[in-house]
């Protein structure tokens, strides 16, 4: 389960960031922000090869001592980042993928809301609920 | 150097090379020996064998060899690896000792010298007692030796020398001191290298032989030690593959050791050493992935081995060092050609090293805090120093100085242990942690810069800034934080920006840097800040204090001692008079006051007042009052009208979250007509005369670093449309747009100018344009002037082909200008009307834009207006004609929209003559309506004596005309059209056909061809008729005949049409074999190509006709 989930706008500013509340929130913000370096690099590398048949899932962006950071980019260049604890070895690539898919679906629902202005931060409760379901439960 | 305890020993980090000692060389006083030594040392490039040479005196004492153990049965090892061991084998115990001795084969005192040499060898041997070190002798000779086997004396004496010195023949060398010294030296050192290899091989064998004596219970440490030694000897032997293998075994053995608190440091130290060696060799073997995998394994294994809790900072220090040294190895490998990538580069290791150093600092702070308290009531640094080893250093790597060599699980002396730990903690307190962290971070920054990670770089720079802040170097901290702040601002990561600003604000406070303090306060109060209300409230109060020249309260979480220092700094600042004014450019920040300004309209007439609005909005929790609002404009004369100042009665203040609008207006000057007025800046003065003045200034019409994006979002927002319908009272701040410039335009003239004319104008015509000017002014329009004519700036040719005049009674000549400037028209009373005719003559066709400009003065205001009109012309068409008798047909097409009266036409012929005796115009008094066509036809002939194959001008066609509507006395206009040039050619054969005007289906159609020979020669003619689908025919299908000069041949064909409509006649092919240049094509011109075939007639009683 994730310790931090973030949605980043096309222009690289955060639309939504949630991390496990007990931990250092700022550190996760930095982790997500720095991971954009790798995301950008990956997007530009793929952009050169095959334009439209791009795989949305970017895989493991970079490993730190404590966390693994995974990335996903929608066709409209909105980025999803999921940070997982390094010690959590039970999560396979497939599970991360399905988490991203779920996130993407929920994000699409948010965008379909006629009252949501694309580019504003996400305040949807439904989205929040989906994210909560994917986070590490700290009771 | 602080932290040196954790530095890897240099003998571990160097590349081990075989150690060869050279004796018997006097490099100080003997030039020959010096040259030999230099040849050994100089230019040791990669292609030379890896040997480290050292010159030692002949009687040098080598380290004593301890007596070899014959049994390990009662032996308990005291540690894993002795600290001196590596150095001993790198620099002290040679693999080979070489004795240099000057002796020629034919030396007169051979005997004596031989025994002296033997003695010297013996001395060396004695001092190497018990070691396997080889000894070799080099004879320095003055003469070049003969090839081996030829010098009998030499071989005999060599044998004798070997014998007396107890040397094998392979260990005796001759070094002739001649020209090719370097060559001989290279050969020598290759031989030395072989000896060294053998030495290290035997050493490896010797260490391996110990293994059988060891048992697993008591000699665990020795297993590691021996594997390490074997690996190290293998490296000295340059056998890196095997070295790697043995190091790997050693590494796994280290982790098999029983680990407990007392020996944890020793195990980790050795594991770190071995890991370093493995990674280094992997990089050297160009298998970086193996190196990375090994390092990861190493870290995973050791991460949890913290050891003593009181010394937990040691573990972090060690971890940090592990990462740092791996980063350095990686970096070194990159310098040697390895390529790294964005996600795998040395930067990550430096970063992690820094991270562990930060941990170390934290732990040290915690653990040593307790020590500090402890010290206050007890003694200071323990005495005697438990860390003192009487200058000898440690015996074994990674052991505690106060209990060296002890391998039992429990410390033998609890009290000693306690003081030892205390001493270490006190020492740790003095370590400049921040310095170490900053060094590591800056290493990492350099790497991430290289591998395109700008955000990671920024993040590390923030950490560096924070570390400088902790190290109390606020200037550097601010410099770094300020540098990266704008990256986070442009990327709109407000949470991070706020965190950075908070640190920056603390720095600014502690430095008492007023300007920085004010800037950071402003931004932390602004809408980008994610601080809580009460924080903002506190900051705003501080800001107000600064504005009223008071000392602000300290920022929370500041070091208390620094705070008191800062307070006195602030007091000094406040006491200092003058320099109380501060201007802050906020365009690139996100200040707590937002500003947007706009001109009410993008343009103003000069007789209207220019209106502009300034909107201000405060985002801070409390109302702010300000002293002055000023707008500066591109023309500074207007600035005086755009100032709002606190006048004493009503305070100017901004309420949180409310938009306040200030209106200004002024009258533009007439000099600015046609110019743009721009806002160059807006200034809001905070504070007042009593305290400190801070001018917050925006460039242009306001806006800050975030407002562009907000405006974009607002424009996207669908809800906005709903809001507009509601017509809410309050302004929607985000959808306010800025209008930073306005245009001053001239007054609207109150005068009507009308043009009446009948376009298009025709070429050469005196085209009349009637101008009516009527004044609608309420006052007398004076000095009315008309400018009329071709508008300047069009095609230059138009100027020469257009003539404008006021005199319409006669056709004007070419001297008339194309533009009549400033024709005075006198004065116009209110409501008065004035008419004027202008005549235009255009010599060429094409659209023209005319300019009519009426200017008048009234109350010193000047106006003008422009009207466009176009003029056209009709265009004649002409055809090509041919020789022999030919027709000239002129078609006159009227493209004029007005009826034209043609009065006469005539031909003026040049070379050709008319076929008819008298040419009479067929077009007299003809009126042509628009689009109508008048044609004239003339039959012409070219006289036979003219030069053939030449173009000739046919002549000119004259046409006189005028508008049908114009009065009979208006001048006639003559248009002259040059007729086209024709090519004259001579034909040898002329053919013409007699045929009826039409045929009828299935009725015979007789066609007679007349073929005329026009040359003075008999012409042979071949004729053939090609079959056609549309006709059957009778007559000669193919024939060859002769035609006499100037005579004519007649051919008769009967065509029988098969289809109705226009049909192509069967083609007649004629060729002249005598005259090959002549082609059928030329003749075809004379022959009819097609004929109309009517359908077969119907009977009258046809039912269909009757029905119709």
UniProtKB/TrEMBL annotation, chain A:
GO biological process: endoplasmic reticulum to Golgi vesicle-mediated transport
Cellular compartments annotated: Cytoplasm, Perinuclear region
Keyword Chloroplast: no
Transport among keywords: yes
Pfam (any one): Sedlin_N
Primary location class: cytoplasm
GO cellular component: perinuclear region of cytoplasm
Keywords: ER-Golgi transport, Transport
Domain of life: Eukaryota
Family note: Belongs to the TRAPP small subunits family. Sedlin subfamily.
Name of this protein: Trafficking protein particle complex subunit 2-like protein
Gene transcribed to yield this protein: TRAPPC2L
From TrEMBL, chain B:
UniProt keyword Coiled coil, yes or no: no
Main location: Golgi
Domain annotation Trafficking protein particle complex subunit 11 C-terminal: ranges: 1018-1070
Keyword field: ER-Golgi transport, Golgi apparatus, Transport
The protein's role, per its UniProt record: Involved in endoplasmic reticulum to Golgi apparatus trafficking at a very early stage.
Family, per entry: Belongs to the TRAPPC11 family.
Protein name: Trafficking protein particle complex subunit 11
Gene: TRAPPC11
């Amino acid at each position: 389960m994730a310790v931090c989930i973030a949605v980043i706008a096309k222009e690289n500013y955060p639309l939504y960031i949630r991390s496990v509340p007990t931990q250092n929130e700022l550190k996760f913000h930095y982790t997500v922000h720095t991971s954009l370096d790798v995301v950008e690099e990956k997007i530009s590398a793929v952009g050169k090869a095959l334009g439209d048949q791009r795989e949305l899932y970017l895989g493991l962006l970079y490993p730190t001592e404590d966390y693994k950071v995974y990335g996903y980019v929608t066709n409209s260049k909105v980025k999803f980042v999921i940070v997982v604890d390094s010690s959590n070895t039970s999560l396979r690539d497939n599970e991360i993928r399905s988490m991203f898919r779920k996130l993407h679906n929920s994000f699409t629902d948010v965008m379909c809301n006629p009252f949501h202005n694309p580019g504003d931060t996400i305040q949807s409760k439904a989205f929040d609920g989906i994210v909560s379901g994917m986070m590490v439960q700290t009771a | 150097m602080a932290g040196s305890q954790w530095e890897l020993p240099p003998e571990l980090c160097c590349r081990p090379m075989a150690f060869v000692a050279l004796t018997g060389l006097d490099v100080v006083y003997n030039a020959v020996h010096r040259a030999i030594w230099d040849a050994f040392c100089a230019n040791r490039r990669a292609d030379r064998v890896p040997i480290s040479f050292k010159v030692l005196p002949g009687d040098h004492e080598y380290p004593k060899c301890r007596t070899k153990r014959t049994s390990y049965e009662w032996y308990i090892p005291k540690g894993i690896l002795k600290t001196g061991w590596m150095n001993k084998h790198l620099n002290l115990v040679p693999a080979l000792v070489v004795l240099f001795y000057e002796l020629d084969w034919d030396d007169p005192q051979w005997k004596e010298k031989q025994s002296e040499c033997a003695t010297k060898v013996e001395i060396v041997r004695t001092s190497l007692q018990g070691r396997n070190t080889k000894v070799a002798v080099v004879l320095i000779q003055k003469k070049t030796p003969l090839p081996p086997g030829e010098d009998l004396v030499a071989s005999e004496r060599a044998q004798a020398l070997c014998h007396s010195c107890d040397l094998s023949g392979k260990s005796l060398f001759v070094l002739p001191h001649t020209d090719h010294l370097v060559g001989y030296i290279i050969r020598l050192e290759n031989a030395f290298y072989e000896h060294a290899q053998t030495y290290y091989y035997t050493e490896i064998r010797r260490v391996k032989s110990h293994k059988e004596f060891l048992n697993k219970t008591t000699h665990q440490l020795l297993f590691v030690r021996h594997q390490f030694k074997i690996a190290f000897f293998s490296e000295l032997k340059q056998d890196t593959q095997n070295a790697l293998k043995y190091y790997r075994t050693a590494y796994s053995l280290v982790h098999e050791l029983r680990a407990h608190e007392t020996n944890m440091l020793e195990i980790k130290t050795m594991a770190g050493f071995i890991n370093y060696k493995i990674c280094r060799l992997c990089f050297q073997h160009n298998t970086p992935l193996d190196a990375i995998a090994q390092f990861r394994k190493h870290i995973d294994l050791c991460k949890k081995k913290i050891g003593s809790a009181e010394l937990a900072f040691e573990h972090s220090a060690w971890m940090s060092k592990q990462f740092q040294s791996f980063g350095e190895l990686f970096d070194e490998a990159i310098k040697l050609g390895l390529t790294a990538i964005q996600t795998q580069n040395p930067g990550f290791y430096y970063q992690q090293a820094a991270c562990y150093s930060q941990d170390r600092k934290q732990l040290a702070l915690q653990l040593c805090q307790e020590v500090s308290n402890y010290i206050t009531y007890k003694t200071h640094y323990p005495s005697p120093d438990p860390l003192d080893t009487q200058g000898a250093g440690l015996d074994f790597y990674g052991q505690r100085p106060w209990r060296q060599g002890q391998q039992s699980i429990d410390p033998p002396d609890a009290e000693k242990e306690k003081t030892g730990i205390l001493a270490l903690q006190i020492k740790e307190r003095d370590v400049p942690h921040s310095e170490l962290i900053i060094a590591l971070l800056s290493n990492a920054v350099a790497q991430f810069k290289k591998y395109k990670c700008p955000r990671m770089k920024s993040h590390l720079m923030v950490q560096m800034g924070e570390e400088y802040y902790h190290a109390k170097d606020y200037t550097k901290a601010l410099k770094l934080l300020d540098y990266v702040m704008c990256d986070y601002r442009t990327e709109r990561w407000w949470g991070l920006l706020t965190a950075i600003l908070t640190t920056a604000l603390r720095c600014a406070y502690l430095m008492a840097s007023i300007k920085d303090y004010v800037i950071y306060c402003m931004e932390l109060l602004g809408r980008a800040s994610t601080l809580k209300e009460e924080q903002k409230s506190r900051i705003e109060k501080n800001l107000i204090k600064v504005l009223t020249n008071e000392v602000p309260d300290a920022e929370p979480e500041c070091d208390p001692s620094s705070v008191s220092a800062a307070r006195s700094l602030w007091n000094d600042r406040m006491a200092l008079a003058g320099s109380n004014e501060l201007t802050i450019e906020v365009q690139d920040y996100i200040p707590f006051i937002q500003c947007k300004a706009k001109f009410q309209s993008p343009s103003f007439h000069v007789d209207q007042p220019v209106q502009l609005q300034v909107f201000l909005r405060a985002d801070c929790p409390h109302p702010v009052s300000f002293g002055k609002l000023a707008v500066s404009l591109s023309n500074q004369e207007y600035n005086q009208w755009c100032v709002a100042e606190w006048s004493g009665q009503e305070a100017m203040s901004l309420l949180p979250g409310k938009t306040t609008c200030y209106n200004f207006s002024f009258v533009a000057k007439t000099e600015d007509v046609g110019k743009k007025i721009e806002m160059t800046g807006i200034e809001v003065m905070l504070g007042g005369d009593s305290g400190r003045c801070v001018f917050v200034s925006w460039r242009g019409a306001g806006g800050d670093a975030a407002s562009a994006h907000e405006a974009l979002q607002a424009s996207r927002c669908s809800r906005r449309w709903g809001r507009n319908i509601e017509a809410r009272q309050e302004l929607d701040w985000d959808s306010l747009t800025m209008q930073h410039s306005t245009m001053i335009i001239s007054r609207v003239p109150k005068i009507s100018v009308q043009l009446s004319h009948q376009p298009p104008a025709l070429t050469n015509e005196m085209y009349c344009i009637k101008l009516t000017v009527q004044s609608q002014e309420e006052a007398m329009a004076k000095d009315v002037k008309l400018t009329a004519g071709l508008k300047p700036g069009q095609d230059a040719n138009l100027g020469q082909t257009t003539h404008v005049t006021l005199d319409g009674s006669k056709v004007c000549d070419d001297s008339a200008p194309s533009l009549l400037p400033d024709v005075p028209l006198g004065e116009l009373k209110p409501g008065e009307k004035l008419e004027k005719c202008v005549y235009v003559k255009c010599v060429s066709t094409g659209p023209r834009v005319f300019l009519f400009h009426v200017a008048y003065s009234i109350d010193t205001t000047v106006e003008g207006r422009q009207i466009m009109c176009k003029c056209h012309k009709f265009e004649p068409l002409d055809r090509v004609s041919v020789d022999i008798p030919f027709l000239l047909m002129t078609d006159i097409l009227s493209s004029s929209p007005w009826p034209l009266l043609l009065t006469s036409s005539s031909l003026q012929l040049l070379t050709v003559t008319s076929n008819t005796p008298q040419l009479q115009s067929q077009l007299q008094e003809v009126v042509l309506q628009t689009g109508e066509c008048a044609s004239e036809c003339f039959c012409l002939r070219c006289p036979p004596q003219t030069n053939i194959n030449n173009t000739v001008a046919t002549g000119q066609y004259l046409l006189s005309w005028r508008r049908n509507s114009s009065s009979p006395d208006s001048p006639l206009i003559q248009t002259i059209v040059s007729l086209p040039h024709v090519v004259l050619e001579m034909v040898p054969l002329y053919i013409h056909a007699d045929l009826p005007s039409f045929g009828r289906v299935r009725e015979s159609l007789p066609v007679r061809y007349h073929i005329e020979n026009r040359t003075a020669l008999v012409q042979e003619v071949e004729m053939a008729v090609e079959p056609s689908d549309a006709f059957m025919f009778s007559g000669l299908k193919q024939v060859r005949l002769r035609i006499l000069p100037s005579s004519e041949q007649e051919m008769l064909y009967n065509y029988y049409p098969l289809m109705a409509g226009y049909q192509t006649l069967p083609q007649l092919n004629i060729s002249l074999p005598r005259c090959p240049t002549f082609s059928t094509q030329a003749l075809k011109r004379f022959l009819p190509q097609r004929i109309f075939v009517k359908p077969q007639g119907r009977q009258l009683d046809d039912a269909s006709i009757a029905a119709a």
